[in-house]
Design brief:
Elements (H helix, E strand, L loop, with lengths): L2 H5 L4 H45 L6 H16 L8 E8 L3 E9 L4 E9 L3 H22 L1
Helix pairs in contact: 2-3
């Protein structure tokens, strides 16, 4: 075996650079993929939460009208907020005092499902709570003076 060939280090920088660059390319690609996944997850979560909130604020409407409000909210929020092609599914349950929205987003690489629920807001109870908070604020202001 030729000892000159073993000690020759010409081209070692090229080999090391090729390994490091390919590894860095993989890491950068993984970060981009992760950022797309997290952005879509945040969008789906926001759609579920906002749809449940909007439907819970429809106090005098029927369950079917709450369902329509939640469906419209999901469609409106996810219309332009997803990266890539995705199939969106939503399951909305509106009972007497609770609205539950489940939004699913399936793309070629991942599937996300988020569930959000809200109690229906009763205006009389909301006003009573607001008055209690206002009175507590006024009482605290009087004691500090």
């Amino acid at each position: 075996m030729d000892m000159k060939f073993i000690r020759d280090e010409r081209g070692s920088f090229t080999v090391e650079a090729a390994v490091i660059v390919s590894f860095m390319f993989f890491v950068i690609q993984a970060f981009i993929f992760l950022s797309f996944y997290l952005f879509n997850l945040c969008s789906v979560t926001r759609a579920a939460e906002m749809a449940a909130l909007r439907a819970s604020q429809a106090v005098w409407e029927t369950s079917q009208e709450r369902y329509n409000i939640a469906s419209a909210a999901v469609a409106e929020i996810l219309e332009h907020n997803l990266i890539g092609e995705a199939q969106i599914s939503s399951k909305i349950t509106s009972k007497a005092h609770k609205v539950t929205v489940e939004v699913g987003c399936k793309s070629t690489s991942w599937q996300q499902t988020v569930t959000a629920s809200r109690n229906v807001i009763h205006p009389v109870q909301l006003l009573r709570e607001a008055r209690k908070i206002k009175k507590l604020g006024e009482d605290k202001g009087e004691t500090e003076e």
